[in-house]
Amino acid sequence: MNHDELYEWSRRAAEWALDYHTNLRDRPVRAQVGYGETAAKLPTSAPADAEPMAQIFADFEAMVPDAMTHWQHPRFFAYFPANASPASMLAEQLTSAIAAQAMLWQTSPAATEIEQVMIGWLRDALGLSSHFSGTIHDSATTATLAAVLTMRDRAMAWDTIQDGLFGGPRLRVYASAQTHSSVDKAVRVAGIGQANLVKVPTLSDHGMDPAQLEAAILADLAAGYKPAGVVMCTGGTSIGACDPIDACLAIAKKYDLYTHVDAAWAGSAMICPEFRELWLGVDGADSIVFNTHKWLGVQFDCAVQFLADPVPQIRSLGLRPEYLQTLGQDEVVNFNEWTIPLGRRFRALKLWFVLRAYGLDGLRQRIRNHVAWANELADQIAQIDGCEITTDPILSLFTFRFRDDEQTERLLGLINDDGRVYLTQTRHDDMFVIRVQVGQFDCTRADVMTVAEVASQISRNL
Ligand SMILES: *Cc1c(COP(=O)(O)O)cnc(C)c1O
Asked: Is 338 domain-assigned?
């Protein structure tokens, strides 16, 4: 295949995409295939001879779409959204055509500089203080790992960079039980160990209890451990829990701990000033992450990390071997020194396209609609016989159950087999509950209310 053929097939792909998106509502949201079905259709080894693109494309159409869960389906209410707006898709096509490696400024001046400017645009759009700079990672998991590595090395006065953790004190990291499993993964990967991630008890609103945080730090100091940092969450994955950022930061600062705020999902909503009370005090954090690839319409992958001071993270992660020197240009920003992988995609382009193509007001309107519709939907579900709202909407996420654990699980299974909507579950207060989040870029109010219609129809027959 050459570039002339690429042009022709790109047109075919664009036609296919238009048809796919136009008819998405007719498809079941969740894949309705069994494990192993797709693999069984593929040959067991790669072809020795080139195959015609027409055949490859036909096989794609025949095998792939029906065996996918449709994340851009307007009635996708599972997990969190992974929004991909059309403007973002267009930018990704251009990124793919240039296919640059954006590891250094000189390997990609426009990628580096657009990334710097986009960080500034987003910082201001979220109402964060102007002292924040930042960078883009593939995922929130990676950004959180970068922050945990930084808190580890900082707590050890940077000795860990050369010596590792050998013979050092037992480091401790604090987070609430509502924080995402990516924090557990980060302490594992950082060599701190999951046993040293202290899950601080929460208050009745499911946010971290600052008094318990301080008590845990004091107990650890008395035991000879070394507290390193605190990870807080704004909009936890299970039910949307928000830690009291200002009070927790005050405790962290009192003990000179490095701080990271995980707002992977909820961060996008902070473009609307009325939601910022959920992370009051956030300007005092050392590091903040949010995924534009969840709720802002910038497709996966595009996790934005803001840093009050990038120097500690660069000290932990930045390396400059001779072959990566940008000779005579020591003043330039080389973003690979801020992140874990050396190689980087040009992710800032899709941010630039999305922020311009919809404008902040257009994006705000979508998020405000989602929040309002989620509240309306929760009210409707509360009316269904046997259904009970188990956690009220936090932004656009709420949970409900139907009679008991067993019946709730049955209802969820039948709803997803039905295919009109897709919901997932979580455990809350030791109950099996159904999670509903509203956030798909193109969903309408009618799409959202379908959840109540389906739940009502199906539960009636249980
Ligand atoms: C989704 C999510 C993550 C993980 O995000 P990735 O980008 O998939 O790594 C972390 N924390 C929270 C609160 C999330 O909602």
From this structure: yes
